[in-house]
Design goal:
Blueprint lengths: L9 H15 L4 E5 L5 E4 L1 H4 L12 H11 L10 H11 L5 E7 L5 E8 L5 E7 L1 H21 L10 H13 L4 E10 L2 H8 L1 H17 L6 E7 L2 E7 L3 H18 L13 E10 L2 H20 L5 E2 L5 E2 L1
Helix pairs in contact: 3-4, 7-8, 8-9
Length: 318
Amino acid sequence: MVFSSNDSTGQLAEILLVTARLFDNSGAAISLFDDQDRLLYGNTQYYDLICHPQGTYPYWPDIVRDNYAKSQGLIIGADDIELWIEAALAKRRVQAYRQFEVDAWDGRWLLMTETQIQDGGLLDIGVDITEAKNITTALKQEYENALVKAETDLLTDMGNRHALERLRNILMSKGRHFQVTALMIDIDQFKPYNDTLGHLQGDLCLRQVAQSIRNSLRVSEAYPIRLGGDEFLVLMLGAPLSLAQQVARKIRSSVRKSAIPHPTTGSGLITLSMGLASREIADSESLSLLLKDADDALYQAKRSGRDCIIDPQGCSES
């Protein structure tokens, strides 16, 4: 146990002498600074975090500068170390007690506490929380993976209705209006396809159509969703109707090129009916109206003989 010999810090040194053995065997990184931010005491674990040898008593800013230059000790994410030090000094001694988490260059995580003591001294204690942090990170990752699975249609790898609700909440949280275009898609006469060829073949057909939809989405902020059965939805944020029409034509062309046999249709191939709608979305109700508009356009496409695209003006494109 070594202390700075600064006579003006005698009272602090007396406090440390009483608790020195506890500090040295605690496993925590412990340091004490005077009111000028000069190191008065550091245990072995603390000196392991800094570039200065044990028995030296540098000022805190110098410790930070040297660690930053040599990538040692606690990680500091800053381009300008002097600005970082200035900002950090402004936070020291503002509160009687504060705590925060930091990571170190050797891979550890520490929970740091700063406690003001008499005459402006500052007691810093760093407790290794690496194991707890790793467990927390693993649990968070498992939760996020489960969340992704809960919002993903396992058959087509698209979003499902849960994903649609999350997207709705995200849109509502942005607090501003968005132009959103919806493309509702339905496989023509899919029930007789399933009844004739069986559900396994039906699942394969759904995956093929889903792949055609995903491959046709080359616009930013486009979200493909399987609503259920053979019904799909693509929401395009900020996309003009003309671009959404191009996407619809690409999807139709891709499915035609796939030439998926359908034993009960006149063409002998799988075809799609699609309905387009576009609205400025300001709230949850306007998004619901957009989906209804797209659904109405889809049913109009079916009533018009299927294998076509209906846009908001009721124009049919086969």
